[in-house]
Design brief:
heterodimer, A: 395 residues, alpha+beta, Rossmann fold, OB fold (Dihydrolipoamide Acetyltransferase, E2P), 2 domains, six-stranded mixed β-sheet, five-stranded antiparallel β-sheet, 20 strands, B: 262 residues, mainly alpha, MetI-like fold, 11 helices
């Protein structure tokens, strides 16, 4: 089996740089995702691997073969398109058989292989139907069968689940993983949905503005983001600016401005060597913070802050609290487990304690741009209502 | 409540009237083709003798074959030109595209009489002997605009990602055209051909100006005969043509349904 190597790949469209000097190695048999917001260049990168776009500079290699300039029909790469692109004038059987017929495969072999592929995607009993007679999820399966029948070295999937509803999406995701395990070839998966990328991939490349911001296994990217962008784009997080005031053993002390002229200090462990006085950003995942109206027992390796609940959002599996500390706002997720709390639910405008373990504070050696001009996002807590609401019971 | 009722009954009566005006003349024509009378004066008994006369009349037969020949050839040629032009016009970066489109659309709104006269002048000027060839050229000329537009409208909605999908599956450009693009264009091509065929069959004005003496198509023959006052064979001829048209409509629907699933 052969790895895919992408070397210094760039592509622009009339002055707009879609992909900017990307280098990447995808191991054989891997399920690799390109993850990023729309316009980040992930689809362009995929289309260059498929051969629909010719890069301005750089090379794409599969094994030792340079495929950069090969037309799509000479590459051992197949694509699942976002809208499936099944041929509407052919039956499902003929759709799946298309690639083999182009290669003038013997008739019996075609029948046999198509049957096998259709059974792999659980569509064997519908082969005489036309694409407009089946559902979105079924079209998806046929598109997969149509691509895999050509024995590609790499299967490219361009937002394959975007057109499906939530339940079907979760179902197809698992099925895609099963198919990946069954055929054992490299899958490259493009998506803007971080949940999809996290659950399906062996490794993920987070992309923004045509560049790869970070790549690695999903848990690595989630737990150990190296940039503000990947911390913010993957999952939810609180980003706080701070300045290093002390380093002791593996602990670092960071002074944070709460926006109201006061400072508080947060302890953290570090994964790079910060200097005293260095300005950096703290990333704090909302689910790692505990919230309570009772002050926790003091411990050395726990951070404790006092704040006021500004908003409560019930989200089914958990509740999101927006807690104001000075002028900063923390997002906190609290799961509904009654075994932890035999107490009255927290209320709007209630004073609470926030606390979390030192190791759950993650340091990023980047500063939040104050103007927000060079960021693709705002670090303000979203889902936040401007109007205050009184508690449901008090009316 | 009453207004709604009134509105509804008005709708119905308008619909009925439209249907009557559309189909009663045709119905009368069909009935009278079996009427044993030389002029339309009333029912004089059932007969098939005018149908028999029709099939014995060499002039009519000749006119019929002329019409079919012209319609067939002009359909074939104008559809072929239509397909090629529509494919060429797909290229949006072609600089003369808008101008060419305007030239293609204009003949649709030019009155037939103008077209007929100008073609007659052209043939006169170039000293081409009028006859089969001039009629054929004239018919192709006025059919082209229609075939181009019909085929093009089909291409307009063409999903280019299907081409990419075929390419991805190993198809070279020629295979993509014959296996994907052409079959998907087919409904447009059939519609264009049918349109050209019907336009050619019943064209009178342009044919009148370009046929000269000695080459009659059915519409020209019918006009001449009615002018001389014998309407009987014309009734039976028209009835047969109505039947043929209906058959054609049903057949194409069937063929389209079974061949292309479109």
């Amino acid at each position: 089996m052969e790895d895919i190597r992408i070397e210094h790949l760039s592509k622009d469209f009339g002055g707009f740089t879609a992909v900017d000097d990307v280098s990447l190695e995808i191991r054989s048999g891997e399920l690799f995702s390109f993850l990023g917001p729309s316009g980040c260049g992930k689809t362009t990168l995929l289309r260059m691997i498929a051969g629909f776009e010719i890069p301005k500079t750089g090379r794409i290699l599969i094994g030792n073969q340079d495929i950069t300039e090969l037309p799509p029909y000479q590459r051992q790469v197949n694509t699942i398109f976002q809208n499936y692109s099944l041929f509407p004038h052919m039956t499902l059987f003929d759709n799946v058989a298309f690639g083999l017929r182009i290669k003038r495969t013997a008739k019996m072999e075609i029948i046999e292989k198509v049957r096998y592929m259709l059974s792999l995607v659980k569509m064997e009993d519908q082969s005489s139907k036309y694409p407009d007679q089946i559902s979105g999820g079924q079209k998806q399966r046929i598109a997969i069968a149509r691509a895999l029948i050509n024995d590609p070295k790499v299967l490219l999937l361009d937002e394959p689940l975007a057109a499906l509803d939530l339940k079907l999406r979760q179902h197809m995701l698992i099925e895609l993983m099963n198919i990946h395990d069954a055929v054992g070839i490299t899958f490259i998966y493009v998506t803007h949905d971080q949940g999809e990328a996290m659950s399906i991939s062996d490794r993920v490349a987070v992309m923004s503005r045509g560049q790869i911001i970070q790549q690695g296994p999903p848990d690595d990217i989630y737990e150990r983001p190296t940039s503000i962008f990947s911390a913010y784009f993957i999952g939810e997080t609180n980003l706080i600016s701070g300045e290093v005031t002390g380093i002791e053993d593996e602990y670092v002390q960071v002074k944070c401005d709460n926006g109201a002229g006061e400072f508080f200090e947060i302890d953290s462990t570090f994964h790079f060597h910060p200097n005293i006085g260095q300005k950096l950003t703290l990333s704090l995942r909302p689910e790692k913070i505990a919230v309570s109206r009772f002050k926790p027992r003091h411990q050395d390796d726990i951070n404790i802050l006092r704040g006021v609940i500004e908003d409560i959002l019930y989200l089914g599996s958990h509740t999101q609290y927006i807690v104001r500390v000075g002028k900063l706002k923390f997002r906190v997720f609290s799961q509904h487990k009654r075994v932890y709390f035999d107490e009255k639910a927290l209320d709007w405008e209630e004073s609470v304690w926030l606390f979390w373990h030192d190791t759950d504070t993650w340091l990023i050696a980047e500063e939040v741009d104050e103007n927000g001009r060079n960021q693709d996002f705002s670090t303000e807590a979203p889902y936040h209502r401007a109007l205050k609401r009184s508690s449901p019971g008090s009316e | 409540m009453r207004a709604a009722k009134l509105y509804k009954s008005m709708n119905l009566s308008i619909f009925t009237l439209v249907m009557i005006f559309l189909y009663i003349p045709i119905l009368i024509l069909i009935i009278f083709s079996f009427n044993d009378a030389k002029i339309i004066v009333g029912w004089r008994g059932f007969t098939l003798k005018y149908y028999a006369q029709l099939f014995q009349n060499e002039t009519i037969k000749q006119a019929f074959w002329n019409t079919m020949l012209i319609a067939g050839l002009s359909t074939l040629i104008s559809t072929a030109i239509g397909i090629l032009t529509a494919l060429g016009l797909e290229n949006k970066s072609f600089s003369g595209r808008r101008g060419l489109m305007a030239l293609i659309y204009t003949p649709l709104v030019i009155p037939d009489i103008l077209m007929g006269v100008s073609l007659a002048l052209l043939f006169n000027f170039t000293r081409v002997n009028t006859g089969m060839i001039t009629v054929l050229i004239a018919h192709i000329t006025f059919c082209i605009s229609y075939t181009i537009i019909v085929v093009q409208s089909r291409l307009e909605g063409f999903d280019y990602s299907l081409v990419e999908a075929a390419m991805d599956l190993g198809a070279k450009p020629s295979a993509i055209f014959w296996k994907i693009k052409f079959p998907l264009m087919m409904p447009g091509i059939i519609a264009a051909a049918l349109l050209a065929f019907t336009l050619s069959i019943d064209d009178f004005i342009i044919t009148f100006f370009t046929s000269g003496r000695g080459f009659d198509t059915l519409p020209i023959y019918v006009e001449g005969t009615i002018r001389r006052g014998t309407i009987t064979t014309i009734n039976s001829l028209s009835t047969l043509m109505i039947g043929a048209t209906l058959l054609l409509v049903v057949l194409t629907k069937r063929i389209r349904g079974s061949l292309f699933n479109l």
